[in-house]
Amino acid sequence: MAEIYHDRLDVRTALTGGDVVGLFRRALGYLWPQRRLFAARVGLMVLIYGLGLPLPWFLKVLIDHGVMQQAIPPGGEGLLYPVFMHGFLDSATGMDPLTVTVYALAVLAVLFLFVGYSGNTLLEANLAEGADVATRSENKISAGSSAAHGLIGLLDLCLAIRLSQRITHHVRGVLFSRLSRQPLTSLNLQRSGDAMFRVMHDAPSIAGICHALTLSPLAMVVSVGANLWVLTAVYGGVAPELVWIGFSAVGLTLVATSPLARWARRVSQASRASGSATTDELEEGFRNVAAVQSLGGSERQREQFATASRESFRQSLLLVWVANAVEWIAENVHLVFATAGFWVIFTGIVRGDLTLGDTPVVLRMYSLLYETAMQFGRIWIDQQDNAAAARRVFFSMDHEVEPSAPSRPKAELRWSDLLMLRFDGVGFRYPDGRRALDAVSFEASTGQTLAIVGPSGAGKTTLAQMTPKFLHPTEGRITLNGVDLADLDTAALRRAVAYVFQEHQLLTDTVAANLRIANPEAAIADMESACRLAGALDFVHAMPDGFASRIGRGGGALSTGQKQRLSIARGLLRGAPILILDEPTAALDPETERALLVSLSASREDRLTIVIAHRLSTIERADRIVYLDQGRVVETGNHAELMSNPNGAYRRFVDLQAYGS
């Protein structure tokens, strides 16, 4: 399954019953921050069922004392009514049938204004949806229902929606934070479409679990308890059989549908994984559309997307089959018990134990018991889809993330001091076993420009990404002023490092918005200064709206050189004491490159600049050069020192450039 659906990290998807219970317990923890909303919903739910109890009894009043014109004796003596109806009966004693009818209808109108026909109807917020997990998740985001209509039902529905939204917002925030803090080695393995699917479509399942395992059972207990009390108090031995019939249906439903639980989890997991794969293909296709079109791969890309889409539809269809199988079993189980229940009701009327007015009362109570039994019996099976989604959410939350602050930092750095960066026997292996660095040792300090040089695949970028802790050494250690980077707060370290990636990572926004990623408080004058140093100010001023100009998707409105200069300007605007540039001049013309290097040299006194470069014009200006080959430091020194060795690796590297030019 993992290979089919692109998963490289989340490959163990099977769940046991015990796993599901653990997931449910963890999901319920998200209720605690919303305990006030939850308590308000519980209070409203009790009020709704309390106000709903008299409703069928007023129908009995209308039939027995309005239509059938039976007189109401003082205090309702000899009539089958619960205690909460005695006040109404006392006030209606002696009224003629028409007056009783009007009086009962007026009270019913007031009750309907507040709760509608409470208990037997639902006020829902659901929108139209399909059978696939993605469209259904949209309803879970703002899921809400109330057992009442009317004013109280509307208030209850609004609280229900708010509760679902807050839980989902909380889960999404935590999940996004964890996903964005995963190490680069993990982020490079798992495709971004999968992450989007988990945040957008899997996260709402937590709110669904919280509702289904707390409010729904509590509502069932309140409803059943209230109706049991009324049945016992009013009808005694006449109608209690209805209760046992309803609860027998619960047990049989559980027994009949439980074997399908494992199948439901497996199919739901496959449906969600295939949906993620479809999102992956969509994201990948649009992100690389230029390369696909230029290489004539559009038809192949279309086929890949079509295959993923068909598989997603197939898994969604299987999920529908499972849901309908459960529905068919539950309906047929309850059909048998419903038949028995109606037999009890109508034989009681024929025998004279019940009046015609008792019919709507008993039918309503039995209907509530029947529906409650059916819902209760299906809670476990219905939550298997949410369990599959919750597993995906919690897997991503629990997956390895970058360490933040250590529990007790050994020391704190003053970033205003001169910094000494030291690599001491540093090695690195990727999770798949590939070695990128081996026993790398060197040092550099504030005011210097350090160039990391070597052939492709030598480990230059891996080495540079260790300074801001994008990657962590698997051997050796890296220190700043003698403090191990492992003992420094990651966020604080990254605030002190400006990293300009070789791949230009620009937002689909304005020039100013892209620059202010580095410094949110930057004024226009600050941005102009940084752009001037990076050689970007002229083209920014030439744009229609200057710094307010939009640059298209990923900077698509800019040339490659302009993107590079804007990225460098953003790094300079950060004002960090450590600046790392990955191939900063690769897309620049010689004149722009020369101007940039002069600017960097003139403003280097207060920072350590680390440059990964191939161009000789960039390298030869460095104070110190570290030449890497196959992950090892082969030579170090400045340009003149390294060129003095006629058989040195750096000298051969330079000669190849000169010969090639």
Describe the structure.
The protein is α/β, with parallel strands linked by helices and 661 residues long. It contains 26 helices and twelve strands. It has helices spanning 17-28, 35-52, 55-67, 86-92, 97-115, 133-141, 150-180, 184-187, 192-202, 205-235, 241-257, 260-287, 289-294, 298-351, 358-382, 384-398, 460-464, 490-495, 511-515, 524-534, 537-542, 560-573, 590-602, 616-619, 639-643, 649-660, and strands at residues 123-124, 145-146, 420-429, 435-445, 449-453, 475-480, 483-484, 497-500, 578-582, 608-612, 624-629, 632-637. The strands form three sheets. It has a six-stranded mixed sheet with strand order 8-9-10-5-11-12. Helix 2 runs parallel beside helix 10 (205-235), helix 11 (241-257) runs antiparallel to helix 14 (298-351) and helix 14 runs antiparallel to helix 15.
Name the descriptors:
single chain; 661 residues; alpha/beta; 6-stranded mixed sheet; elongated; disordered N terminus
Task: Describe how the helices and strands are arranged.
Elements: H1 17-28, H2 35-52, H3 55-67, H4 86-92, H5 97-115, E1 123-124, H6 133-141, E2 145-146, H7 150-180, H8 184-187, H9 192-202, H10 205-235, H11 241-257, H12 260-287, H13 289-294, H14 298-351, H15 358-382, H16 384-398, E3 420-429, E4 435-445, E5 449-453, H17 460-464, E6 475-480, E7 483-484, H18 490-495, E8 497-500, H19 511-515, H20 524-534, H21 537-542, H22 560-573, E9 578-582, H23 590-602, E10 608-612, H24 616-619, E11 624-629, E12 632-637, H25 639-643, H26 649-660
Helix pairs in contact: 1-16, 2-7, 2-10, 3-5, 3-15, 5-7, 6-9, 7-9, 7-10, 7-16, 9-12, 9-16, 10-15, 10-16, 11-14, 11-15, 12-14, 12-16, 14-15, 20-22
